[in-house]
């Protein structure tokens, strides 16, 4: 075998596996579109998104101010916080490849009136009425998604987990205890097919499994 081929194979075998994760973003169904939430969620699922977590909540004005802190100082800020605290909203963590950009595309332009002209099939054109009551919200970038998901879902794990202390904390908090419990139960049960049994047990007892929570 050619030495260059051998060296190439050695290099490939020594390379660390690629980091693979499914991007997540935050989606809000605003008070004006709450009565159409089921329709909107159906469109979301049909467009290839996976709903990781879901909550129905009613934010107070102070919470809305904190959530939209990046908009603080703009003329529409008081009106925005008053509107977003005027009724319940549906919050969703959405996951798929390039979730942030695909969700922004599905929402369409922020002004629903313009969206009806330029993107008639987007959610804001279908369910919004103006630039404020535009039916849905989405994170603008990964940093915003990380902050907004953490605001609405404090227990959520945001991928990718950076290498370092955060990864160690994640292993100690979620992976190791779950795996230890599964292996302990495996020793007790002694199933005929331990691999399949453990795989099924881990799926059933996944601490980060989707959690649909409807709260007032």
Automatic annotation (TrEMBL):
Gene3D superfamilies according to UniProt: cAMP-dependent protein kinase regulatory subunit, dimerization-anchoring domain, Nucleoside diphosphate kinase-like domain
InterPro entries named among the record's database cross-references: Dpy-30_motif, NDK-like_dom, NDK-like_dom_sf, NDK_H5, Nucleoside_diP_kinase
Annotated Gene Ontology cellular component terms: cilium
GO process annotations (BP): cilium movement; CTP biosynthetic process; GTP biosynthetic process; negative regulation of oxidative stress-induced intrinsic apoptotic signaling pathway; spermatid development; UTP biosynthetic process
CDD domains documented for this protein: DD_NDKH5-like, NDPk5
Keyword terms of this UniProt record: Cell projection, Cilium, Cytoplasm, Cytoskeleton, Developmental protein, Differentiation, Flagellum, Hydrolase, Membrane, Spermatogenesis, Transmembrane, Transmembrane helix
Transmembrane segments: 75-95
GO molecular function: hydrolase activity; nucleoside diphosphate kinase activity
Pfam families: Dpy-30 (PF05186), NDK (PF00334)
Domain Nucleoside diphosphate kinase-like: 22-160
Location of this chain's protein in the cell: Cytoplasm, Cytoskeleton, Flagellum axoneme
Assembly and oligomerization: Component of the axonemal radial spoke complex 1 (RS1), at least composed of spoke head proteins RSPH1, RSPH3, RSPH9 and the cilia-specific component RSPH4A or sperm-specific component RSPH6A, spoke stalk proteins RSPH14, DNAJB13, DYDC1, ROPN1L and NME5, and the anchor protein IQUB. Interacts with IQUB.
Similarity comment text for this entry: Belongs to the NDK family.
Protein name: Nucleoside diphosphate kinase homolog 5
Organism encoding this protein: Leptobrachium leishanense (Leishan spiny toad)
Lineage, opening ranks: Eukaryota, Metazoa, Chordata, Craniata, Vertebrata
């Amino acid at each position: 075998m050619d030495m260059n081929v051998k060296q190439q194979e050695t290099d490939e075998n020594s390379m660390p596996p690629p980091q693979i994760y499914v991007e997540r973003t935050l989606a809000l169904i605003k008070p004006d579109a709450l009565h159409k939430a089921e329709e909107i969620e159906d469109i979301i699922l049909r467009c290839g998104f996976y709903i990781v977590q879901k909550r129905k909540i009613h934010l107070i004005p102070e919470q809305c101010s904190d959530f939209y802190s990046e908009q603080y100082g703009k003329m529409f800020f008081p009106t925005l916080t008053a509107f977003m605290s005027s009724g319940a909203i549906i919050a969703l963590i959405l996951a798929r490849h390039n979730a942030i950009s695909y969700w922004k595309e599905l929402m369409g332009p922020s002004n629903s009136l313009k969206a009806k002209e330029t993107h008639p099939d987007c959610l804001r054109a279908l369910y919004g009425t103006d630039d404020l009551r535009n039916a849905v919200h989405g994170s603008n970038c990964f940093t915003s998604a990380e902050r907004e998901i953490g605001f609405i879902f404090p227990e959520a794990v945001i991928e990718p987990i950076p290498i370092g202390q955060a990864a160690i904390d994640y292993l100690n908090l979620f992976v190791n205890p779950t795996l230890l419990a599964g292996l302990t139960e495996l020793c007790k049960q002694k199933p005929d097919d331990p691999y399949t049994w453990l795989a099924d047990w881990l799926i059933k007892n996944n601490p980060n499994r989707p959690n649909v929570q409807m709260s007032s």
